[in-house]
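User: Structure with phosphoenolpyruvate, C-alpha cells only please.
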Amino acid sequence: MNKAKRPVVIAGNWKMNNTPAKTKALISELVPMVKDKNGCDIVLCVPFVDIDAAVKASEGSNIKIGAQNVHFAPSGAYTGEVSAEMLKECGVEYVIIGHSERRTYFGETDATVNLRLKAALSAGLKVILCVGEVKDERVNGITDEIVAMQTKLDLLGVSADDMKNVIIAYEPVWAIGTGLTATPEQADETCGVIRKTIAGLYGNDIAESTVIQYGGSMNAKNAAELLAKVNVDGGLIGGASLKAADFTVIVDAAQ
Ligand code: PEP
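Assistant:
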C-alpha cells in the first residue's frame, strides 16, 4: 500500500486547556471551518470534563472526539481514574495513550502504557499511541533503538487484527511544546523506523496500512512540509489545536 491509500489523521491534543463552555465555543467555531475537509480524519482529544460538551458541539460534523488517557482496569478502587467503558459511553472514539507528558510527569511506563492500550482496544476505542526520544537520546544517536523498543513494548500482546485501531504518533519529546520541530526528513526517517518495527512484528501489509503521525510543534507554517513526507500520515497537534484558524490551516494542509 502506498501513502495515498492510508487515511490521514489530524488530531488535536488540547492537554489541560478549555472549560466546557470554552469547548462548546471553540468546536462551534471549528465545525463550519472544517466541514468540507473530507481528505483527512479530524479528531479532538479533550480533557475528561469537556467530553460531554465536545460530543454535543461536534454532533453531525466530521469532527471525532478523543480522550487523553484511560485506565487499564474496567472498574474499581482507582481514585481519579476513568475507564474505557466510561469513555465509550460518553461518545469518545479515540484515546491518546503514552503521551510523553504522562510518561514524564505521571510515572507512565511502557508496562502501564501497554495495559492501558489493551484495555482501550478491548473496549472498542481507537488508540493514538505516542512514542519518541528525548533530546539526549537523539544527540547520542539512539533514536531508532528507543522508538523501536517503545513500539515493541507498548504493543506487546496486541493482535494483528487490533492493529487496525492503532495509530502511532511519533513525538520527539524535545519538540513537544518547545517550538522546536523535527525537520521533515527527521520526522520521515523516524516514522519509517516505526513502520519497519511494525513490519517486523506484524508483517508488511499491516505496517503499510498503519497510520503514523508526527507530533511536536506542528503548526500552520510547517504542517504542509511535514505532511508531504511519505511516512507521515497525519499529525498530533498540541498548541496549534487551540486556535480554530491555525488548526484549520493544518487540516487544509492534509487534504
Ligand atoms: C502534543 O501535545 O502531543 C504536542 C505535539 O504538542 P505541541 O504541538 O504543542 O508541541
